[in-house]
Amino acid sequence: MRIDASPHRSLGGSPPSEGLDGPVPARLGLPDRTARRARVSSRPRVTAREYQGLVTDRLVESRLTPNAISLTGFALCVLAAVLVWNELYFLGGLAFVIGSICDTLDGRYARTSGKGTPFGAFLDSTLDRIEEGVVLTAVAYQFAQESDELAAAAVVLAVLASLMVSYTRARAEALGVECKVGIADRAVRVVILSAGLLLASLELLEPSVYLLAGLSVITVGQRVWHVRGELTRNAAASAD
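User: That's the sequence. What structure does it adopt?
Assistant: Structure tokens below.
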């Protein structure tokens, strides 16, 4: 008589991984691999906006005020300027990114928590202008140290144009015209400057400044044109 000595077969002729009660993982209470994949793929993915909402909800439950968040973002951007002044571009870029994230949280936090005040909104807008300007001032200093006059002039133009982007919106809204148009709002400008600082080792800081200045000037023109059209349309409607 010949006996099958294969290690892959049991005396009953069935694989050792299976028995009367099914596969070994099931008998041991282990989840099947296919079931695990299905559960993982069925989990809802949290988007960036939803994650920001979760963070805001946690802040609402705390005693933190919107002004404290605004001042924290301001302090981080001043730190970023100091780091850039000392040629620590990557660390300065990180500080600027985190400070700018604080700026995106404070406004939403003020609205959802009910802790916002008119002075808080004024303080937030004022600090936003200073934060961008102080970091660009440090960048201009570095270009001046390298005798790169064209890049330093581009930084000055970028600062002026970014201030005008904010001013045109504020003046338009004072005239009753909503003015959020334009290719380079604050979020876009922050991304461009952050990328330039973080990738300064790849010689991308100077191109980012040129891009920032150019897009900011274009945005000012777009907003002026938009406001002119809206005021002309309103005037024609009033005459009718």
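The chain is about 75% helix and 0% strand.
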